[in-house]
Amino acid sequence: MNLSKPFTTLSPGVDCAVLVALSGSTRPRTGREVARLAGRSKTAVQRVLDRLVEHGLVDRQTAGDAFLYTLNREHLLSPAVEVMAAARNELVDRLRDAIARWRIQPVHGSVFGSAARGEGDLKSDVDLFIVRPKKIDAEDPAWRRQLDELASSVRRWTGNHAGISEVSAQEIPRLRRERPPVLRELAADAIDLAGRSARWILKSP
Fold first, then answer.
1. Where would I find the H helices in the chain?
2. CA–CA separation, 23 and 17 (whole Å)
3. What separation, in Å, do the N-terminal and C-terminal C-alpha atoms of the chain show?
4. Is 120 exposed, middle or buried (0-12, 13-18, 19+ CB in 10 A)?
């Protein structure tokens, strides 16, 4: 799945880009604003807006010399549009739910990198940072099974691989001292999924 534009999985054309742009706000937008948000040409976007107005999925109102557009949230298809627009939030929710069901709970779990930023593409990993409890061995069968199942779920949910960075809680003091690149990425965009927050990992030694 294109992590920056999940809707392109269903349709790489202009239509979905326009609908997702409109779903982001209830404020009426001009055709020019919609084109900017959708990242498409104004001419192509205008054709799509005209067609969607005809189908009733988009409302159009006059404002002086301009037209303003909003998503018609009473339309039967509007829930499908909002699901597309909220795909990244749905991924975060699924990750949290999956980890919450683990028998061995992590000290910390977060998603970071392109998936957290809403960027990336079909080849981007869904980067996860997992801190293993001190008393759990890295090769503990139950622990490894949890990680493997999570990686498999991420693949099924998105089509992308899970890039899991796993460390023991015993290693946290060393990471705080050495400040490897992964800590800079966590500081920039980590979204907490389970256990202690990323701030606990990032605090000064």
1. 14-23, 31-38, 42-55, 78-85, 87-100, 114-117, 141-158, 172-178, 181-189, 198-202
2. 10
3. 38
4. buried
Question: What kind of architecture, by CATH, is found in domain 6-84?
Answer: Orthogonal Bundle (1.10)
162 Cβ contact partners less than 8 Å away, ≥ 6 residues apart: 125, 126, 128, 150, 151, 154, 155
3-state SS, residue 89? helix
Residues 46 and 38: beta-carbon distance below 8 Å: no
Token pair, residue 49, equals 């807006």
Query: Per-residue pLDDT tens for 55-102?
Result: 999 999 998 888 999 999 999 988 888 887 788 888 999 999 999 999
3-state secondary structure of 17: helix
The domain ranges of the chain are 6-84, 86-202
Angle between the 14-23 and 78-85 helix axes, to the nearest 10 degrees? 90
Strands lying side by side in the sheet with 191-195: 162-168, 126-132, 108-112, 191-195
List C-alpha distances in Å: 29 to 41, 91, 118. 15, 28, 23
Per-residue confidence at 171, pLDDT binned at 50, 70, 90?
A: very high
Query: What sign does the CA torsion over 17, 19, 22, 28 have?
Result: positive
**CATH number corresponding to 86-202:** 3.30.460.10
